[in-house]
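Here is one chain, start to finish.
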Amino acid sequence: MVKIGDVELGEFPLLLAPMEDVSDPPFRAICKQYGADMMYTEFISVEGLIRDARKSVQKLDIYPEERPIGIQIFGSNLESMMRAAEMVEEAKPEVLDINYGCPVKKVVNRCAGAGILKDIPRMVELTKAVVNSTNLPVTVKTRLGWDANSIKIDEVAERLQDVGIKALSIHGRTRQQMYKGEADWTLIGKIKDNPRIHIPIFGNGDIKTPEKAKEYKERYNVDGIMIGRGAIGNPWIFNQIKHYLKTGEHLPEPQLIDKLTAVRQHLRHSVEWKGEVLGILEMRRHYTNYFRGLRNIKYFRSQLVLENNLDGIFQILNEIEQTYSEVQV
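Its structure:
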């Protein structure tokens, strides 16, 4: 049984990665429905949180059906990180996660996210302060290092464990790589095999098929897998991996009706949480992913991203169902 503190996650948990502008409550609800064992919020700026910025505070929203869930924060100021940790605890997640992996320039330039990979002592100092500021189990998500010449993930894992984190998720790329090239899990496996490491180690990067999940589980001996981009438009991946690991067989691929059901649910959740205008607007980024591989979908997809009325969108979805009723997706 894999545990983060006292939070039980099963024998080999599949985690939904925190993704900015993606892993909001509507998306998380769909992933949970299709097998995610634990999820994380979009990352939250500690500066925005302590200043009561609406967008940051809204990201603290948690719904009962999502649990267990971790709230992820990022920042570089010691006092702000500590104050934000106290605010996160008030939201009552199961876990508080610190982001030391975001490669985006505007985050990195503030010595936050992956920017702190250039200052490991500072990373350790911030982590220790957060651990001491909350009763929640604290976890960390990070990358292998800043670039190929400064990979220190073995040192990072030991030092963060020593100051009290309860699990570590590692994306198998450096900050310099961004999301290019292939994720290297070799060092993730090395961390897991380190006899000094006793906390769960979760691998992240490029898991998009059940076969690869099984291969990496067995090759690198990780305690679980964190899935990010592979779940966008494909929330079924969690149950597909679980079934394959258990039976060695594939679940049937989702059919058109399955995709439409997920889209309709996602859209309803989005409007309920964000309001009709913003809910419709932010749902647009998901249509391409949900309908990827569907022949001649371009016309309907363009209609979906132009329509501003909720009833109109549902009508377009009904037209898609009628038009492709015989199509096997």
